[in-house]
Amino acid sequence: MIFTENTKMADLIHANYLLLSVINRFGIKLGFGEKSVRQVCDEEGVDTGFFLEIANAFHDKDYFPQKQLQTYSVKQIVDYLKTTHNYYLNEKVPEIEELIDKMILKQEGRSLDLVRDFFGQYRHELAAHIRHEDELVFPYALEVEAFYKRLRERGEVLEVPSIVKKFSMKKFSKEHENIEDKLYDLKNILIKYTPPVDDHALVNHILFDLFSLEKDLNDHSRIEDKIMVPKVVEMEKAIASVI
Amino acid sequence: MSGISFLICENSYIIRKGLLRVLEELGENVEIKEVDGIEGFRRHLDYFEPDFLIVNPQVFGTENFFYTDIPARLRKCAIGLYSCPDLPENPVFPEFIALNDTKSNILEKIKSLITRCKGENYSNTGSSPEITGREKLIVKYVALGLTNKEIADKLFISSHTVVTHRRNITRKLGIKTVSGLTVYAILNNIVNIEEINR
Ligand SMILES: [Fe+2]
Ligand SMILES: [Fe+2]
């Protein structure tokens, strides 16, 4: 199913409840009655085209952005991705960590300590991945967009900013690792190889969180690869053809 | 983790999805991207480097697209997708799929091309679900921090064989990373923590 501006906002969530967190990231709150995507977005001051692009890419892994719809800016994409990063590092991951600690309090044993250490390593890995994007990739993408705009407005050859020369989206794309592998492992370790824990509800809660974080990260990476990368690559090409 | 990636270039939605469905049979570590025309094809190759291409020549409409549009590196790893059973007289592709091929037929062709290009036997069927003694030993070495090359030297096998073993281990256990395998090895008493910390 592809969402359009006339789709009811409520139907989006019925189609895929994981879109709840996407809606939150746009600052949209529940209680939208029968309103369509367009109506809700207009009221909340959200760019409808951009919202739909993200919702569709998030929901359908085969969705590929339509060129004519790409009216949004790199800045919008970057802002969205940064909000997501923040959610992972400062909300979701600490939440899971807390649950693991709770499990350890209830049940002693060194195997659960291993699980905690493993998740701790994962947190570091995720933080490094995110830092790389926040501190290098995103500033680069924004710089490319700014330079591209200046070129188009002035129509003259300008000095290329050094960051634009030093990096490229192709490089990012090539090195862009998936960061879900350890989560995938952790799920199997908990499901298959950790001695049984008495508090079923707690373990289930951790597993649900791991499954949904893994899925969320996957969809997040897809937005980076399918929405941010092609958009910046287009601009890189346009810049290269002028200078 | 070594996976395999494909780029499909075909204008028919139905055929693309059908092919996708077949390729999923290759297992979990397969990444597939699809495009419906030349523009998407070129755009993708700008930033995605697939291991294999599956291309419908009709999408390009010219005779020599094989040399102008497909990067040299990929020409050995490209599969032609034909809608009719008669294949062209002077085939440029190293492998072909026709629309009326059966599922097993297609998989066979793709696996044999993977084997030819990657130089290792690619099959994910026919081995037991339990890990073998040999595989357990490899898990132990991985947990102790040995590289594939070091493991190969210790066991007098080739690095390729180690890679194949590791792929099988990952498939059976559902664990992809070195630190995940380490936790597994400790939990199952394949190594103990003291050994690892040494
Ligand atoms: Fe990211
Ligand atoms: Fe990322």
Describe this structure as you would to a colleague.
The complex is a heterodimer of chains A (243) and B (198). By secondary structure, chain A is an all-alpha fold. Chain A contains 10 helices and no strands. Chain A has 2 domains: 9-63, no CATH class; 72-240, no CATH class. The longest helix of chain A has 45 residues, at 110-154. With 198 residues, chain B is an alpha/beta fold. Chain B folds into 2 domains: 4-118, Rossmann fold (3-Layer(aba) Sandwich); 133-196, Arc Repressor Mutant, subunit A (Orthogonal Bundle), CATH 1.10.10.10. Chain B has 10 helices and 5 strands. In chain B, strands 2-1-3-4-5 form a 5-stranded parallel beta sheet. In chain B, helix 1 links the parallel strand 1 and strand 2. In chain B, helix 6 crosses helix 9 and helix 7 packs across helix 8 (159-173). The longest helix of chain B is centred in the middle third of the chain and has 16 residues, at 103-118. The A-B interface holds A 62, 64, 110-111, 114-115, 118, 121, 169-170, 173-174, 181-182, 184-189, 192-194, 229-230, 233 and B 1, 34-35, 40, 43, 46-49, 173-177, 179-180, 183-184, 186-188, 193.
Alpha plus pi helix count of chain A: 10
The name of the CATH superfamily of the largest domain in chain B reads Response regulator
The tally of helices of chain B reads 10
User: Quick one: overall form of chain B?
Assistant: elongated
SSE sequence of chain B, one letter per element: EHEHEHHEEHHHHHH
Distance between the termini of chain A: 42 Å
What integer is the average pLDDT of chain B?
85
The geometry of chain A reads as globular
Low-pLDDT runs of chain B: none
What is the radius of gyration of chain B? 20 Å
Strand content of chain A: under 5%
- CATH topology value of the largest domain in chain B: Rossmann fold
Using the 3D structure, state the CATH architecture of the largest domain in chain B. 3-Layer(aba) Sandwich
Question: What's the story with the biggest beta sheet of chain A?
Answer: none
**Beta-strand share of residues of chain B:** 5-15%
User: Briefly, what CATH class of the largest domain in chain B?
Assistant: Alpha Beta
Small-molecule binders here are:
fe (ii) ion
**Amino- and carboxy-terminal Cα gap of chain B:** 26 Å
Spatial order of the strands in the main sheet of chain B? Answer: 2-1-3-4-5
Number of strands of chain A: 0
- Detail the poorly predicted runs of chain A: none
